[in-house]
Design brief:
about 220 residues, mainly alpha, three-stranded antiparallel beta sheet, about 75% helix
């Protein structure tokens, strides 16, 4: 593996393991052994342990006393519970952005939304690129909202939500028309400071996405 990313060693290990969990290389419920991982990556067990705590904060790993760490389970029920909490965080974010955006924020917000729509217009849509562009919208909105606690909570949910998208990519592809419509309408509501409309759009979109992910995981 390549450790060129300018993070701490523990963060690099966490990112490496997170990618393996999100893409299904480490299966839901599978044990992650500190000693084996440390040997594989030629790092200390202390660094692996710190990385596992980061993954626990990202909702990708469960750590049980005397049993160690394992990848969190992800079935239709777990995905539903995950998405319910994530949706409510997004509703809070929408309300804050509607309240706090300034004129100088407008070009950047429209730019990142435009990137999502641009990705979906490509002849062969790359779901990973769409998801990453969608998260960029969330991150810019977090900057505009300026609430560090909300930003941290959403950041910690991002890997687990990404994992759900990766494991249900084909189902997610079926909902691209609604995704495009959502990203077209949401900026209009936000720029009009219509928090009720923005939250209604998020709630409807999130419920639709949750249903697609539940269907994929149930099958």
């Amino acid at each position: 593996m390549d450790f060129q990313v300018p993070n701490t060693l523990a963060e690099q290990i966490a990112n490496y393991l997170a990618e393996r969990i999100m893409t299904g290389q480490i299966r839901p419920g599978e044990r992650i052994h500190e000693a084996t991982t440390a040997t594989e990556l030629n790092v200390s067990r202390a660094s692996v342990k710190e990385a596992l705590y980061t993954l626990e904060r990202w909702h990708l790993v469960d750590i049980t006393p005397r049993k160690g760490a394992s990848a969190t389970r992800l079935d239709a029920e777990h995905a539903s519970e995950l998405y319910d909490v994530y949706m409510h965080l997004l509703l809070m974010l929408a309300a804050k952005v509607c309240e706090r955006w300034r004129e100088e924020d407008k070009p950047r917000m429209l730019e990142v939304v435009g990137k999502v729509i641009e990705q979906m217009k490509k002849p062969s849509v790359d779901i990973t690129s769409v998801v990453e562009a969608s998260f960029e919208v969330m991150e810019v909105c977090c900057e505009v909202a300026g609430n560090p606690y909300l930003t941290e909570a959403l950041s910690n949910f991002k890997p687990a939500v990404s994992r759900a998208y990766y494991l249900s990519a084909e189902r997610y592809r079926q909902g691209l028309a609604q995704t495009s419509e959502f990203f077209t309408q949401l900026p209009q509501a936000v720029l009009a400071r219509d928090a009720d409309k923005a939250q209604a759009l998020i709630r409807e979109f999130a419920e639709h996405q949750k249903a697609l992910i539940q269907q994929a995981l149930a099958s």
